[in-house]
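just leaving the lab so this will be short. what follows is a protein written twice so to speak, once as letters and once as structure tokens for the fold. can you read through it and tell me how you think this chain folds. anything you notice is useful, everything is just below:
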Amino acid sequence: MKLFRIEDEEDLWCEYGSAYEAILNLMSSSFPDQAKSKWALDKAYVNWRGDSYTVNATFTRFDEAVRDVVMVGCNAEGNRKNELIKTSCGVPIPVEYDSWKKEYSPKGAG
């Protein structure tokens, strides 16, 4: 498993650009743009199983409708033998940042 954080986003683009682009396209069509807040990569994990791989990524943004920071998880499944990439995203949930752990967690989970 390989981990990418926001500062590694360029490496994620270079190594898994097709899968990452597919995730971003799905997010763009699934979640409306907001004037003051854009999705930002939180972290992404890449797992390989034989010729198949999965990119699991989480993104955060301030959601103007709920007036809170939300996170959504998406994934892309690909295979080095063909170009087909399957994508899916969950539902955005309110999160809070834990400065000790340096990561987001669902609100009320602590």
